[in-house]
Amino acid sequence: MKHFLLLLLPVFAAVVTKAQSPQYQDAMTKQVGLLDVPASYTPQSMLDISNTFERIAAAEKNQWLPYYYAAYTQVMSALMTQDKDKIDGLADKAEANINKADSLKQNDDEIACIRSLIATSRIMVDPQSRGQQYGPESGMQIQKAKQINPENPRVYLLEGQALFYTPEQFGGDKAKAKEVLQVALQKYAAFKPASSIAPHWGEPHAKDLLQQAGK
Amino acid sequence: MWKHSFNLLLCICLPALVLAQQKISGKVTDAKKRPLPGVNVYIKGSYDGATAGADGTFSFTTTTTGPQVLVASLMSFQTQEQAINITGPVQVTLMLKAAMNELKVVTISAGSIEASSDKNNTVLKPLDIVTTAGATADIVNALKTLPGTQQTNDREGLFVRGGTGYETQIFIDGLMVRNPFFTSLPDMPGRGRFSPFLFKGTTFSSGGYSAQYGQGLSSALVLESEDLPARSSYSLGASVLGVSGGLDELSKDKKGSFGIEADYTNLAPYFSIAKPKQEPTVGPEIIGTSLNFRRRTSSTGILKFYGYGNWSRMGFKKNSIEYPGYQEQTDVRNQNVYTNLTYKESLGSGWRMNAGFSYSSNIDKIKLDTIQKSPVTNVHARSDLSQLRLMLTKSLGAFSQLRLGGEYQYAVERSEFNSYRANYVDNYSAGFAESDIYFTPRFVGRFGGRLEYSTVLAKVNLAPRASLAYKLDDYSQFSLAYGDYYQKPEPQYLRFKQDLSYMKATHYIASFQRLSSNYTFRVEAFYKKYKDLVKTVPDTLTNGTGYAKGIELFWRDRKTIKNLDYWISYSFLDTKRNYLFYPYEVQPDFAAKHTASLVMKKYFPKITTNIGVTYSYASGRPYYNPNLPESKFMSEKTIDFNTLGLSASYLTTVGKAFTVFVISVTNVFDFKQVYGYRYSTDGLRREEIVPNAPRFLFVGMFMNFGIDRRQDVINNL
């Protein structure tokens, strides 16, 4: 009898753990869904969404995705804000979250992409002084992501974006940006996220940039 | 059985209980009861929560019941947790306290201007230090646009708040740099020997500085060397001055790097076209090399080596003022080696260690000759300095710190004046202890002292130092500083007479500073009392006196006009001293009452060109006229000093190399500049002391393979 109970225990435990999953799945699906809506992309609503991801992350300490998305929404807020004094604080927060995601899922291309964005946001505070430190860091993270997964469309989006916004004399190249963004779109077309809540952002932005680059 | 069925009942009812939703609502404010929008409020361990609205209110429903923990978190505030018991709807009011980040915590700032790339909120960035048209990549020249400094361009060194160039001490990673300037000729100050780009942080202190630093009566310039480079790079440069090349190699494991740089400067071709005031007879020619090595020894430890070797020779000829019709020739050959090895490591439980060793050697060979009139005078001087330094730092609580350290220097000074020799050896040791105590995060005090002993003087001194700083809000702060500063007399006096004492200065400083990312405003008032300055008449003694007082303003604006960054500084200085051959206290010949600078940089993105303008002004300085009676000593003044420097740099790509083309001109409008007058011994003839090359045109090209360092070049001009 005792043995029988012990045998049951793991089964029971599994049921309990799994019981959390639908709630997790639901909440994440809803929040990740918000990221597909263009209206979510304002500095404030990004922060509101990041609050929810942080709540989920605090309750689900073994899931990397809530941390990942919290970092993503925070760095996006940093990139969009008009108030330069806020950027470093947001970047620090995003960095803390991406470090936690990293400890749960090592060597991930999506995480490297976020790190590249964080470096880019730090440049914006003071391009003259910080460009030299964070510019190469941002580029290095894109290269790292590409090495891990050359099929990740976000790698090409970030690469194209960097080429697009960097002045020609500093190594930017609009024609090359166009090529890379076209690659990004091909990769987006072929990309199948691991699940409905796995990272899949960026396609509309890539199209936008490509249009600006003069198709 | 009955009990059993109750349990069963409970089990059946449980899901229903759990599903019962309760409303949690309330308001979040800051410590001053103002609503806080954007706060993340939630039940710990659940997903249930909400973001506070613009009025600070929040509301959400939860399926949790009983005792729970409500969490409220917001960036730059301390996260707060509050226990609640959910049996029905819950109403709570939460108050968040501001978190103590870098912005909110006060730092000691009286007397010092910091340029750091680590922190966002500093008065200047390291690049700004050298971002000055007309500064010609010289740290000291660039610092001359900051408040507290003098436009004393006829002598080497940084003249600060009524102090001489000797009273400013330069430190690299805590170790003193002897002979930081190339050996100068009369009226031609030597440039700094090191590249400004080796440093990630620069602190220029015009008074009231930490007990860590000694042997500077007026000012300390503290340079902190770079850590590892981001990636490997190679560079080449060519200009009207000469050629340069360098490489900076990052190791494969990215934990170490080494760099080599070499340059060759020869001004003879330039001077053959643009004739200087004095006729060049040798060079000027300089060979410079530098070597650095850095290695991360652990996640917290780093070992750094930096060294340079320079060889220079130059000679000029001019008409003698002493013997009309004859010419005087001065010839200088200099060899200088400087090495600096430092090791930083964390020792655990809040202790950190900074250890350093440095050796430097300077050899000057000077030949003075009034051709065909008097015999040649030969001066040989050699200084060797070895130093050891160890500093331990202990963190006390969140912000407070204790620093303990010791220094030992072994100096050998040799000199030979024709066949007359005067050598001496000094063993100098010092110990210091200092603590930064945060009474509150907004209010800090620094208290410390420094004990020094020099064998050549055979005297001990104890210098107390103290400062206070109080932060009024996120951007503004008040500071006060007080300190005693001691310095050995210059080697030229110690060589001949050693029963002298330390020269002494006491500083009192009050300052207000408002610093945001786009604007900086600073005002500082100071009073400095001098004692025991060297006197040479009637006898060499340390019994000179003096004072300096003044007020300084600094304003910087990086926002009002797009792509334009400018700063203005103004210094008012009232100083008098009785030293050297002065009969009584007068305004010395190196000090101007009013000094002002305007520095502007504008970037034109369409043509990728940077334009920089620097204008500096100084009121006339007194000069010594031997024909005046003693009562009128130093009563005459030179004309006011004006200079306007201009630079333009164009950025482009040549092949694979990022390239910058640069053109810069100093004293564009050819303002007449007179620093003083030199009289013949009989007082019958005099000559103006003027810059040797009143206007200088620089044209150059710099290429960099690998990392983009063009910004360096632009900001160098």
Automatic annotation (TrEMBL), chain A:
Top-level taxon: Bacteria
Keyword Signal: yes
Keywords, alphabetical: Signal
Key word Signal present: yes
Signal peptide (UniProt feature, chain positions): 1-19
Name by which UniProt lists this protein: Tetratricopeptide repeat-containing protein
Organism: Chitinophaga rupis
From TrEMBL, chain B:
Superkingdom of origin: Bacteria
Signal sequence, start to end: 1-20
Gene3D superfamilies: Carboxypeptidase-like, regulatory domain, TonB-dependent receptor, beta-barrel domain
Any one cellular-component term (Gene Ontology): cell outer membrane
Organism: Chitinophaga rupis
Name of protein: Outer membrane receptor proteins, mostly Fe transport
Pfam families reported in the protein's UniProt record: CarbopepD_reg_2
Lipid biosynthesis recorded as keyword: no
UniProt topology in membrane: Multi-pass membrane protein
Family: Belongs to the TonB-dependent receptor family.
